[in-house]
Amino acid sequence: MANINDSLSALLQADGALCAALVDANSGMTLGQIGSGLDLDLAAAGNTEVVRAKMKTMKSLGLADAIEDILITLGKQYHIIRPVVSKPGLFLYLVLDKSRSNLALARRNCQDVEQTLTL
Fold it and tell me: What is the mean pLDDT of residues 16-21?
């Protein structure tokens, strides 16, 4: 089992990783962050709204399912949002340089980190 700092460090091992955070989706606050490239506090707050909107939409549609991850593709970056199954209300947030990353491996790395995270 890995603590927050170990988990975030593991996320940054992915090729092209720029920064990562653990976010409380109830408040939009970061519980930990690592790396550089953008304002993670601002990104955490904004992506909290993305998670809330998706959950609300799923509920409205009557989908009895869970979010595995949310991928946002920008011109130069990938942003991966992965809810922490063992800690409802928390999500991992990873930002990758699109030109230097392997999206499939990064998603797998997020899954591995999410499964080993302890608080």
Answer: 97
CA distance 70 to 60: 18
Answer for the pair 96, 14: CB distance below 8 angstroms, yes or no: yes
SS3 58: helix
Alpha helices in the chain (DSSP H): 4-11, 40-60, 103-116
Residue whose pair of structure tokens reads 């499939």 in the numeric block: 104
Cα separation, 116 vs 52, whole angstroms:
24
Q: Is there a contact between 25 and 52 (Cβ–Cβ < 8 Å)?
A: yes
Whether pTM > 0.90 for this model: the answer is yes
Residue-wise pLDDT for 29-71, tens only, equals 999 999 999 999 999 999 999 999 999 999 999 999 999 999 9
CB 53 within 8 A of CB 67: no
Q: How many CB atoms lie within 10 A of CB 104?
A: 8
